[in-house]
Amino acid sequence: MVSGAATRPTPRPTQEVMALSVIGKEEGIVHGTPKGYKQHRYRKVPATEACGCLKAIRDYNAERATDRAPRASVTAHQWNNSGFTGEPGLSRAARVVHPPGDCPEPGCGAKDAPAEPKAPLPRGWVRVQVGGSSEPTRVYCSGGCAAVGVALAELRMAPA
Ligand SMILES: [Zn+2]
Ligand SMILES: [Zn+2]
Q: What are the sequence ranges of the domains in the chain?
């Protein structure tokens, strides 16, 4: 017969038990952090501006949004016809529509000068070189633009 007591592991406060016991309780919430915001949600305790959790989650989401490089959907066609390739006149003649990833900043996405040692970049600019890519080293006006450049260079790996 089943006695139960012999096989049951030593009782310990499992995570579920602890979590269930905090529903509705504010005590223990790490206010002013994204974690605190999640605790609010889980515990069904409203987060407020006063406790800092609303601001924390806004900052957290804004940071993640920039990390994701939202402008990474430039196509090869846009790339080749937007002046990125450095062909004179093309960027002037093209209609001024800026699809995602097409930056109006002059020189953004241009091939890096071949000179060695490398000239210092303007403030905030980024030099992108992906090892093994058939794309040359290029310079970008910002981290966001550079992320697009990295993605493109990764798509154009030279045959191994
Ligand atoms: Zn809070
Ligand atoms: Zn740019």
A: 15-67, 76-155
Window from 13-17, 55-59, 122-126 with minimum mean pLDDT? 13-17
- Whole-number Å distance between alpha carbons of 13 and 10: 10
pLDDT at 76 over 90: no
Please state the rounded mean pLDDT for residues 142-159: 92
Report the predicted TM-score, pTM, of the whole model to 2 decimal places: 0.38
Q: Which two tokens stand for residue 53?
A: 């959790």
* Cα(62) to centroid(ligand 1), Å: 18
The bound ligand whose nearest atom lies closest to the alpha carbon of 55 is: 1
